[in-house]
Amino acid sequence: MNQLLLACQFLPLLGLLLIFLSKGNEKRIATISFWFSHAMGVSIVALLSLWAVAGFPEYEYHWFTLYEQGDYAFPILFYLDKVGAAYLFCVWTIFAIIVKYCRVYLHREQGYKRFFQTIFGFVFGLNLIVLSGSIDMLFAGWEIVGISSFLLIAFYRHRPQPVRNALRAYTIYRFCDVGLLLGAWMSHLLFHESSHFSELSRLFENDAMPPAGYLSLSVLSWLIILAASGKSAQFPFSFWLPRAMEGPTPSSAIFYGALSIHLGVFLLLRTMPIWSYQVLPRLILFSIGLLTVIVASLSEKTQSNIKGQVAYASITQVGFMFMELALGLEALVLLHFMGNAFLRCYQLLVSPSIVAHLLRVEGAVDTDFYIKNSSSLQFLPVSIRSTLPEVLQNTLYVFALQEGNLERLVRNILWNPLKKLGAKINAAGFKVKALVALALLGLVVLAPVSGGVKIYLSIPVSLAMVLVSFGAFSEKRSPMNVWNGVALSSLLAGIAVWLLNSAALTDVALFLTGIVPAWLLGLWVLARMLKHENFAEAPFVYRAMAETRPGMSLLLFLSFLGLVGFPITPAFLGQDLLLFHASNQHPWFAAPITIAFVVNGIAAARVFLRLCMGRPTEVCVVDQSR
Amino acid sequence: MYLEDNHLHQHSPVFDLDASIDHLAHWLPTQGPIKDFIHHNTLHAFQHLPFHEGVSVAGKLFGARSYLPLDDYQRMFREGRIKQHALDWALERAGCSEEQTQALRSTLFDQDRRSHYPPVSLVNHGIRNAWMNRMEVDLNAMVHPILFRLLANFLDQGISRWTLPKNGERFWDCVLRLAQNSLLPLYPFNELAVRELLNQSPDEVIKHCLQKMVGSEALYEQYLLEVLLAHPGWSGMVRIVEQSPKSLLARRRISLKEMLAVELLCELAFVHIRKGDGFLNIAALPNLQGIPLLDGDVLRPNVPLRMRVWHEAMEWSLHSELLAALKNQSPLPAKQDSVSKPLPEAQAFFCIDDRECSLRRYLEEVNPAIETFGAAGFFGIDFLYQGLDDAYPVAQCPVVIKPKHLIREGSAKPKAEKKTKSPEFGKMHFSAHSMFRGWLYTQTLGLGYAARMAWNVFRPTLKLPGIKALSEVGEAHTHLHLLRENDEPTEDGYLLGFSLPEMADRVGGLLRNIGLTKDFAPLVVVVAHGSSSVNNPHFAAYDCGACSGKPGAPNARAFAWMANHDGVREILRERGIAIPDTTRFVPALHNTSRDEITYFDQQDLAKHPIKELHAFKQAMQHALQRNARERCRWFELGPQSHSSEEAHDHVIARASSIFEPRPEYNHSNNLYCIVGRRALTRHLFMDRRAFLHSYDSETDATGEILVKIMSAIIPVCGGINLEYLFSRVDNSVYGAGTKLPHNVIGLLGVANGVEGDLRTGLPQQMIEVHEPARLLIVIEQSREVIDMAFARIGDLKEWADNDWVRVAACQPGSKALSLYTKSGWEAIELPAEIEVPVANRSEKIIGGRGTTIPVHQFTGRHS
Question: What's the confidence (pLDDT) of residue A362?
């Protein structure tokens, strides 16, 4: 069973690597994906049947411990229970269908290789989430799914719109990752060794006392709910989902119709013991679900495009799932999840049929064809239509048309203040910046070594870290500055942690071994890329380097992943460690470091998009003589 | 000529908004709602210019490529598809001096990866870019989602559940209603700076906004054009709805002016939000040099000579393949004696469509005693048709004809009452069911969709019952109400049915067109065509182009009914066309994606049994299978074996798979159009590349028939050809891009993503294997008669004059070939070394080949 677990987990990764190494020959890729999807299917089925024969146990497998220091440990843990099994089953069915579907559907498409790579990466992340035994590992999977989702939305990189929408989805993902990152840290803090899912339920079994304080437990619950609602496009983040329907139809179907959107539900199911312990988080969850159902079902009424309509219908159902979860109807949620996943996946796959369906099938004279009696369907419900004053009708319509105005709400609350602050920072003169830097440096170097002062020193350092991040976030004219800003902010994070806890020096070093090479690589690539460009002259133009300089773009992408702490470099682990060490005694530090982490990620992603996406627009000036 | 100071101050005559909009609108795409797809020249607005110049100007407006990459041409040369003689021919015609020609020749084989990139264009480098580059306001990104949502919801034909416009409401009024009479603000029309503007008329709003944002009247028109071309799909759709509201089922009242007013208001609001009151308008911005201007040299063509030469060389190589084959074939018996030649066993009429080209070849190959004819697929019967299950009547004739007659299909047996109004169970996934019903459905039925999905993907051909395939449409128990009972027009002003003389006009007209006025076989099959596919919003582009993108079955049925009618035959006999009583016409429909055929009106056959029909059906079945195999050579994932049955199974699976974006390749690689007797082409293998129209030069001394034929062929075949050509040359500007991410918007069209512009043109999956060459129309007629005919085709002559199609004449008898040019006919002299390849069977030619095949000559076939 252990081997099977590992097989389920790593077959997609192997597939991804093989596809990456293959020459981009369509047949080869198709064969690889065929065999790997089948091998994965076989191992999933075998795993599930073994598990069933064993009597549906809650099975945990500790592979090895990746990193251990003091009371911190990062074990590679796998865990399988009913929830995981249900999700695994869905992953298998839908993935197998989509791979078969795409074999033909994507035939001769330019990004054939890219597509299959991404989709294998996605399944790898998905299995990691589903099979993970602790929140840390789940977070790694969460990041992988986020990045592959980002890449698939921007699949058609020639046009600016998919690229913009990819960034939109990514920012929401990134923001909601705060929930999970802090959640992972808090669970370390609260449950120590026992952040394993297998032990979560046991922790709460003795009902006399919760394993942690009420307050911290509530905070943890809220964080988890935040993470879940971002991924599942719940209130107030619903708006990104319909806009994410930019990739090939099957990728929309598997991500936003079927699997990705239900990951929030999965997270909640996994951590049910934590947040269901108290009433307040349940209440919050219920209200989020309810608000989502209201907003999304109204928005769905005015979607005049088919994919947007399916998206909002799906969001509504996930809203119901949240409500069911809040009521503790675990089994119902599982059933509901599977039903919704398959139905929405199918709806999206056949969405191009809607024209033929409505015109040729529904268009029959004697069935109700909504074009004919549109006026009678104008505003539901019928009973009050005649009494509903026009102003209310209009209001309702405007509300639905603007999808509850959630997008502007989120933008105004979250991003605009950051942008303004960042712009102010960037506007500050070089002298001011240099002065601040010198002062900080001087303080850090010259400061007396006594522990107490150092801790206070870490306050301005972490403040500087956050401000540098904001600066990078609103920097538009120079990608170099963004890259340096992100790296500087990470460096400051390291310094701050060191100041807080000098024992963590090795961990800081570990963190920086991930960041520094990524940063340097990025600088080199950027310098090469921008050699002949005047970036500041047209900062908003997409430069299509992925097309014109694919090698450089790949390097920039890797550097981007390293810089934002994606689980390919030690920085991922280091990030977790920094949080753990620094915030053990100083919980306030968790806030600035996560904010910086989120903002850095978005800033770096933006640079990557601006440089690598777009259509080559080199201008051909043909003179008459040729 | 670039923007200079004096330019800003020099005032052009007062800006006239209406004239300006009318002027700009002709550059917009004219593709209607997706339910009827009518092929047309994508660059129809530039047809008054010679081809290369028109293409160049269009490129400078739209930011599109004009030719294939240079590499592609050079590769074709290496592979022998472009011949040296054609390259010489093209160089000669490039209009250069001796010196220039030499210089040009020396650069032909240079490597240049950028030569086909789009030129500096109004769309990509115009004055609106100033917002982005100098003011750092990405107006398109902010305004388009809002505008597109309003437009899509206003024009929506049935996807959204709540309809936006009230009965007969105009777009502007509708937006006003939402903006002014709602408790929630309609963003961004609630912005202080634009709120008062809402009370003014669209005219005033546009002028106010232009004055605020652009500043100089000289730039107004260009600014408006750039606004429109930033989303050509929606602009074009609005224009079409404005001009022909009938193109929508649910009528909407909207105009380009209203759309512009809403859009400019929106822009103004955003500029205010981002920049406050004191922003600089465009004319006041410094450093605007280098921006292309509409009244500067944007409209002046700039043809890249090297690309032009390569492109023409490619076309001429391909064209000369046919011309050489026509010229070289063994002389035909000049005039066939009706006595010496045995009557054919059966005759079959096909559409001119290039997809029927191979089917006709196979049918004749299977049974040489079958004679085939080609005619425009509406078979001369122009009418509006309303089938038994149709909610509304649709035109069944080329767009250029405005039909006056309405035909309804009736049921022979009383119709069974439909029991329920609730949607069928199997179709529930089409309604998204968001709320409680959705909750119930997903809980209960959702899992079933896993099975259904797996079934559809892994076993596409085993259909779950319930979906009616196109081939099943013609049920035996229906009939068409063709004969007019009274002359009372319907409320829409149509006549219900035809009178007998009107029928005789149409039947006789077609028979004369194709030159069949005697020697009727006992069986004449009228084969219309249509195409069935699933999960395909562009389905209308797959059907018959001569029937406005519908299957041609009603036309075939109408034609056969009329031609079988004794009264009609009586009149025809008086007019000199004697159809023997023993001759019966049978209508049929060829499904071009599944390669299946359906014979209609079986009840009629029961009354008049025809003994030849059985043999014909068998021959047809063989022909269809072999045709399927020939089509399979293009399908890389299809079987490449020798088995026709396997190929046939494959094409059926293709047409019924939800994951197959290419049910067929339609008109890909269309290249030739031949107007003449079948005897001229019967010996030729033309690789499904030819539109074939039957025409007998001897019966048309005045060119009268030719006028009729040309006025159908030029817009239909020429339109198809040029739409394929431009969609292939720049699929992202002239075409619809890849099909895979398409999202159906309001039943009007497809877009990328939820908030994209409507995509016009053809998707990549239809054109990817197309060789973008212009159509060569070969007419088997003397040059004098052709000239007479051309003098009478009106505007269509500009297609030939400006080389948007090439026309060649093939002198009957001598087969002397000449090429039409604006300045007169040129004799075509092909180098002697061109050899026409020879084969004795189609399968010998197609075996294992995945690219286009030159014209072959068959040996040992008798006509």
Answer: 45
Neighbours of B109 (CB within 10 A): 11
Contacts of B660 in chain A (CB under 8 A): 104-105
Q: Considering only CA atoms, which of B55, B48, B58, B38 is closest in space to residue B797?
A: B48
Those of residues 160-219 in A touching chain B at CB distance below 8 A are 160-162, 164-165
* pLDDT (mean) for B453-477: 55
Type of residue at A49: S
pTM, full prediction: 0.92
Nearest by CB to A97, which of B453, B740, B765?
A: B453
Q: Which of A580-584, B216-220, B392-396 has the highest mean pLDDT?
A: B216-220
Is A260 an interface residue toward B (CB < 8 Å)? no
Which of A155, A339, A358 lies nearest to residue B158, judging by beta carbons? A358
Q: List, for residues A317-339, the tens digit of each pLDDT value.
A: 999 999 999 999 999 999 999 98
Tens-place pLDDT, residues A214-266: 788 888 899 999 999 999 999 899 999 999 999 999 999 988 888 999 999 99
Q: Nearest to residue B671, comparing CAs of B852, B451, B401?
A: B852
Beta carbons within 10 angstroms of residue A75's beta carbon? 18
Nearest to B713 by CA among B320, B402, B398: B398
Res B548 pLDDT > 80: yes
Alpha helix (H) residue ranges in B184-287: 192-195, 202-213, 217-229, 232-243, 256-275
pLDDT at position B7 is 44
B634-680 tens-digit pLDDT: 998 888 778 889 999 999 988 888 899 999 998 999 999 999 999 99
Backbone angles phi, psi at A173, to 5 degrees: -55, -50
In the predicted structure, residue A625 carries a pLDDT above the cut 80:
no
Cα separation of the two ends of chain B: 62
Cβ pair A364:B421 closer than 8 A: no
- Alpha-carbon distance of A234 to A231, in angstroms, equals 8
Which residue among B181, B443, B737 places its CB closest to the CB of A390?
B181
Residues of A in contact with B740 (CB under 8 A): 105-106, 109, 248-249
Q: Rounded CA gap, A91 and A254, in Å?
A: 9
A536, A525, A540, A548: which is closest to A606 by C-alpha?
A540
Burial of A408 (0-12, 13-18, 19+ CB in 10 A): middle
Per-residue confidence (pLDDT) for residue A368, from 0 to 100? 30
3-state secondary structure of A477: coil
Tokens of A299: 């928005």
Question: Closest partner residue to B442 among A301, A307, A336, by Cβ?
Answer: A336
A397 lies within 8 A of chain B by CB? yes
pLDDT-derived band of residue A36, with 50, 70 and 90 as boundaries? very high
Task: Judge whether residue A288 has pLDDT over 90.
Answer: yes
Q: Is A534 on the interface with B (CB under 8 A)?
A: no
Nearest to A159 among B421, B750, B752 (CB): B752
Return residues 145-164 of A near B (CB < 8 Å): 155-156, 158-162, 164
Test B187 with A395 for CB contact under 8 angstroms: no
**DSSP3 helix / strand / coil % (chain B, rounded to 5):** 45, 10, 45
Q: What is the mean pLDDT of residues A50-67?
A: 87
Instruction: Check B740 against A309: CB less than 8 A apart.
Output: no
Q: Chain B: residue nearest A399 by CA?
A: B184
Q: What are phi and psi of B581, to 5 degrees?
A: -65, -25
Kindly state the tokens that stand for B345.
Answer: 């066993």
Burial (Cβ within 10 Å: 0-12, 13-18, ≥19) of residue B571: middle
The C-alpha of A230 sits at a distance from chain B's nearest C-alpha, in angstroms, of 20
List, as ranges, residues 73-102 from A with C-beta within 8 Å of B: 93, 97, 100-102
